[in-house]
Amino acid sequence: MNVDTDIVTLTRFILEEQQKYAPTATGELSLLLNSLQFAFKFIAHNIRRAELVNLIGISGTANSTGDVQKKLDVIGDEIFINAMKSSNNVKVLVSEEQEDLIVFEGGGRYAVCTDPIDGSSNIDAGVSVGTIFGIYRLDDSSTGSIRDVLRRGTEMVAAGYTMYGASAHLMLTTGFGVNGFTLDTQLGEFILTQPNLKIPNKKAIYSVNEGNSYYWPDNFKKYIEDLKKPQDELKGKPYSARYIGSMVADIHRTLLYGGIFSYPGDSKSKNGKLRILYECFPMAMLMEQAGGAAVNDKGERILELLPKGIHDKSGIWLGSKGEVDRFLTYL
Ligand code: AHM
Ligand code: MG
């Protein structure tokens, strides 16, 4: 039988990476990443069951104890909060589902920003959704406040997402490139499947909700219109449009195949829809670490933005370096 008996699990990978890049580190970040992977597994498990749970809901019966089923968003949020709290390494948590930040008692030295289940409106159609996260290390003087997370994206020590699709895929960066893991449900482990992932420098795919284009500024309209014209370097073919409407799924495709993804600001929502701390920043860090780029509507580097509130939004354009550079020529 042809069995690989020396696979790299996420736990092994984290420990080896710590040995390699930070041999004197305390191991707290490694422990935190370990708590995170439990949250991903638990959320993946619930998403797999969601359809059945919904069917039960439709037939009018409650679950065995008679409780009304909770929405998956709430379940994801609770799983995340509990996992971070019990890790003892997190002091500050920002969740899309919580208006205010959560400060845990105890000595945690990290802040985590998350969208526990992004794209949840797609779940009933079986479309992939995901958990997005960004991690900051706290200053030694920190007592746990909003200042711990109102920082530039360049200060994050780790970021990533887990996409719950045909399998659960975790894309992780700790600032030394991007590595992809796939959950083996039988083993209950994330296995390293895409070591040192790089995004292609160019790819003729654009991903944006064009239904909003009436409200876009003229240069955004012109840029997208030009992509739809015959391209010399594509032997006269235009770009392809691909838009799932679930950020993690759209970014996952972009990371693997290349192209450009955008959720720009427009005249009805000037900063677009996506949140800086737990949507734009983590995705921007992953893109840059994979060799791509991420900018806002003015062409400024996303990671250098400084949010003023924990739920602030920004227009965003990210993906292959060559495609983002082309967009920049329209500004
Ligand atoms: P959510 O955080 O409420 O799930 O919304 C974010 C999602 C993203 O996953 C996706 O990129 C975007 O909303 C799609 O928005 P739209 O339907 O306006 O295209
Ligand atoms: Mg979201």
Automatic annotation (TrEMBL):
Its cofactor is Mg(2+). Residues 9-195 form the Fructose-1-6-bisphosphatase class I N-terminal domain. SUPFAM superfamilies: Carbohydrate phosphatase. GO terms for molecular function: fructose 1,6-bisphosphate 1-phosphatase activity; metal ion binding. GO terms for biological process: cellular response to glucose starvation; fructose 1,6-bisphosphate metabolic process; fructose 6-phosphate metabolic process; fructose metabolic process; gluconeogenesis; reactive oxygen species metabolic process; sucrose biosynthetic process. It catalyses: beta-D-fructose 1,6-bisphosphate + H2O = beta-D-fructose 6-phosphate + phosphate. CDD domains: FBPase. Residues 199-330 form the Fructose-1-6-bisphosphatase class 1 C-terminal domain. It is an enzyme of class 3 (hydrolase). The keyword Magnesium applies. Its EC number is 3.1.3.11. GO terms for cellular component: cytosol; periplasmic space. Keywords: Carbohydrate metabolism, Hydrolase, Magnesium, Metal-binding. The keyword Metal-binding applies. Pathway: Carbohydrate biosynthesis. It comes from the Eukaryota. InterPro entries: FBPase_C_dom, FBPase_class-1, FBPase_N, FBPtase, Fructose_bisphosphatase_AS. NCBIfam families: PRK09293.1-1 (NF006778). Belongs to the FBPase class 1 family. Homotetramer. This is Fructose-1,6-bisphosphatase.
